[in-house]
User: Fold these one by one.
Assistant:
Number 1:
Amino acid sequence: MRKILLGLLLAAGMASCKKFLEEKPTSTMTAENFYKTAADADAAVVGAYDELNNQSEVYYRGMYLLAELPTDNAECGQGVANAYIFALKNYTYGPVNDRIETLWTGIYKGIANANVAIDKIPGIAMDATKKARLIAEAKYIRALLYFDLVRLFGPVPLVLHQVTTLDSVSQPRAAQEAIYSQIISDLKEGEQNLDDVSSASGNGRATRAAASALLSKVYLTLHDYANARAEARLVLNNVQYGLLPTYADIFAPANRFNKEVIFGIQNKGNTGTGNGFAMALFLPRSTIPLAGGGTVGGNSADVPTVEFYNSFLTGDLRKDKTFFTQYDAGAGLATFRPHWFKYFDPAAITNLGEGSLNFPIVRYADILLTYAEAENELNGPSATALDALNQVRRRAYGKSITTPDASIDISGVSQAGLRDALLNERRWEFGFEDQRWFDLKRTGNLLTLLKAKGLGIQDYDTLYPIPQRERDVNKQLTQNGGYTQ
């Protein structure tokens, strides 16, 4: 980042030396003359959203490699050739790891784009309500990305404005308290200024409910259970959102915008532009025959563990949407070891970069379970905590969501028993949604559970190392404990 900025500054200096020989171009697009209209403001915010959809850097795969792969949910398949990815799974990674660096860089690119919008939009003459909403959207994106950073790395540089000088690149790590305070402030602004719901033309934009939902997860991570419960209740009382009757419908290509996904990363599949959900890495390699000859071009890189596959209880319908072990693409049934299935789009079977599914960041089911966890910590296994959990369970087993069912419902458990039940339920509900590592860490189970399952995790692996490349250019960055200093 420092090298890129240095090049830009040098270029600017060279241009200024020549300006007495040249007239100022009237058609050149620069930062100074671009942010002038409401359309420019909207474009700035779209640019912030765009980095979220950079799948190799952030969602889904950049995050998957740090939040799903190193857990008991996933393992390296035969398509993995990168030694740095094996190191993430085997807990042998260190400060030099291109996948950790890629995620760090991608997140800060998204933050930089958001900061440009936050800094530039206030100076644009436009409708005040729309201006406030666009700024709040950019702050929502910034809050989401800092929430990921602080959970993965602990203290990180807290960059809140557009970077314009070399001095502003080299910032020390801010205290976690300061980072969380900024996250909460940004999301509180969103609760005031974001739209109530996304319009048809604005599908995928952050809403007030998205701000409240993310706030509930932030407070839960901070063990501020009263505020976590209060924010979750705001979402649960919003009639615009709710559980879909069938789990599989959440991930149906024809239903990519639905009332359960409170905020998700948008993909534009089946358009021929290559901007869809990239499916190759999680589909079987050279296994499924195609009607026109050849096989589906999967790579079997990102695969679930067999233990996770086998952990689902009899009758749990989520299993057959989370994984698949056989498929007929028109040339006969093929069988294979369990692979991820949740984001599979059959319409893109011959062009795996054109999947049309969106990637959910926060779902209504997540907020039900967040509410249940917070309520259990405050009051034990109360009726409201159990009902929030059991709504998710009933849907999973094909039952009426609102009708108690003794064959499915959790009841008669202690506070500790409900903690265990919630952690298990989150695992089954959110497999391949990049939540497992965060759930294990938040609940204090990351080390004990993964050690018990034979993974090579060390006591210091509750935080990832600061990428060495970043420390080479920013001498103020310290390293997390346990890693090469």
Note: Residues 1-29 have pLDDT under 50 and may be disordered.
Number 2:
Amino acid sequence: MEGRRLLPVVTLAVLSCTLTALRADSKLTSSTVLRALEKVSAPLWRPTHAEVRKAYGSDLTDSRLTVAADLLGPVSRDALEHRFEWTIASESPQFVVLRAMPRDKAEALFVGPIELTLSRATGDIDDLRFCDLPVTVADRKEQHSPIRLVSNVRVDQVAAESGISPELNQVLEKWQKSTASIQNLKLSFERYRYDRAFNLETRAVGRFVFVAPNTGMYRIQPAPIPVGTESKIIGTDGQRFTLRTDAPESLVWDGMSVTVADDKYRTLQTLEVPRQDAGIQRVVGSWDNVWAGITQPQVALPCVVDVNVKDLKERFQLSVLRADEQHVVLQCLPAEPSARRQLSEMMVIIDPQTHLTKATKFVGPSGDLEIVHVFLYEQINQPEVAQKTWAPELGDYRRMEMPPPAPPAE
């Protein structure tokens, strides 16, 4: 068919091995099934995000686009077993269903479990399903689809409803009310940073403190990574990400200025915070001023305190991707140029019981950089937090000159 790439024909030798491996009378393990898939997928190529998005719909997150593309292209059994925990969910004379849970903590939060249905006759993927998204499979009208089954799968429109529904409004209102009640807060977090341009994953642990209206601290330290630990993330080139710890850094706000401290080299810079006005973007800072993104703790770490639903609705297209007893997953896609210049997607996981933010993910404008925070709340509205005993001791740090703020764009 014109305009469509055809899959190369699998050799008879490979197909023969696959048929033997997945015979209905053979005892299967997830490893043997993945080995068969590795052989069948060897001649294939990895589909693009655009191809997967066309098949699944525009509401599929970047994280899931990447996972779907990785699974539907050529795969390596070893890489799949390193990245996911696999179990055989069910078997029938025609199919084997594998269930995969990402081993990476951040990927598990924002992607969730996946089911692959493989044909015993071919060893190939017959269905790919994200377990919290209802999907329907259309008849396969073309056996040589460039992305195989994914081109015949569509997300049920009810499953990823866009627009501001009454249910979504209720979630947003409770979230805003809950975060607005926070006068002071101390929490710890894990931070995962994925740089797809350089196949690099960095990890940090940290602490965030907020005292209304604009005092606080954001401090990260290298995450403890046991010797021999490898990243669970595989790049588009099939290579495993390099795993490193993040450099220590601190941001401290006193209401009048923000101090940026390099804890590794023990240097600091201080910037006077400009007077706030209606023009300051509250969700993810302001593109016009590079320093506006760190003028307040609630801007440097968005969507945790002082959430402004009106601002979110104006700047983003909002939808609830998942809602159950443990998580409400909110997707925010930029709806105006200023937001698109800063990020391509924002996701927030909200606790449906407390309506506090459990985790956030920000994807850069090019899609190459993802930053995930996973939160653990320690103290909320406690007098000792308001007394600011948490402030780090920076007296022996060497002060550096701070470059002047950039002027607003015309």
Note: The two ends are 50 Å apart (CA to CA).
Number 3:
Amino acid sequence: MKVATVEAIAKLARRASTCDSVSAAYGGATSATDFGPLYLIPKPFDPRLLSEIAPAVAQAAATSGVASRPIADMARYKQQLTSFVYRTNLFMGQMFEKTKESVQRVVLAEGEDARVLQAVRVAVDEGICAPILIGRREKIELLNRQLGLKLPLRFHDSIDEEDQDGAQSFVEVMDIRNDPRYKRYHKEYFSIMARKGISPDTAKYHINTNPTVLAAVMVRLGDADAMLSGTIPRYSYHREMQRVASIVGMQPGVKFPAGMGLLVMPNRGAHFFADTQVTQEPDAEQLASITLMASEAVRRFGLTPRAALLSHSNFGSGPSPKQETIARAARLVRELAPDLEVDGEMQALTALNKAVRDSRMPDSALVGNANLFVMPNLDAASISYQLVKGLSNGMEVGPITLGLSRSAHLVHSAISTRGLVNMLAVAAVEAQHLQAAGGTPRQDDPCTTASSASLDDPGAPLFSTAGSWDDSVVSALNN
């Protein structure tokens, strides 16, 4: 067992640390975790020590016969140990396993970000996805060396047709400056935006300078299955979301995207909040759409969605125009998804406490405590999400984009390396889901795309909402 310990430490020392907290503890010095004369054993702050050394010792004890009760499932044991370090790991374990069912190509727009490269190292080691990095070749190669990540980089111009299968074990780098697909990409982007204020030269400029646009075009054309962007902010979230939605299109019947945040809280489990990103003052139809999209996303985590549409009012106790809007949204959701556990309008405490809810509405369709909270507007969603996160010390996963025809997510610039790893898994599993459902972009359908207003007009509405629902359903609910 001592030998197993030494071998595990030696193996770990030769692998680059993918945790930003380790380098931060040493003033951000990358040499502090690069194997060599100054780094012979892992640092005491390295979170991998627990999940690597303990399983190695346990396995040696079982192999030698010393252990009277050997661990039956070593992979699960390692996962449990990792959850002590990364609190989202135990919850995300099922999602990580799903990614291995069908490996998806996920393009990361900010390939020159150290956190992105560290997350890619984890993704490669754990088989979460086949990453594609957008960035300058020399910059990515330099960071790869400085961080000691030893990523097996492969550039598109060096991949032969006969070597395509073997290239899957490499990390592809998209350097648009000398990639032969450049012309195809800017022509495709212009074909989408030709009558939306974008000229051919502007299309070339965006493909050259905005990696979010480039990543979205790659996903649209099938050169990637999913995308992540946002670690290096260039434009506002809403402007970038509008561009992505215009390129990849919306799911059939969906008018606008939405954003959902997930908090994994100590002793409280996972709770989802929507819409934390997009619609400022949703009407009843929009709230219903947000609820349905968020419920589907919750199911991908292996959970049963229990949705509560929140308000200041409990089932009509505080009549107001907003209360009526939320109550109507709840009726619409029940009409469209009768098997979904959903109710509203209700106060937050009512959603969290079954006893309180039963005293107010004994026949509520929401049986258990809610795990999905649909907020009345963007202010309420953002404030409550951040407040709960801060007070509960909850670990964030997201934001998760809802409603697009392809798996495309815009993250926050403050996201950690582990947060990116989680989002790579979320993006990959959503791509699997969309492929299985046969979802395809519908850019030519004016009822399922983002607003055609100029992307450079700050006063233009972000997303049109007219005609997004079957008029007969809406009319029936109005009556």
Note: The chain has three domains: 2-85, 101-250+405-479, 258-402.
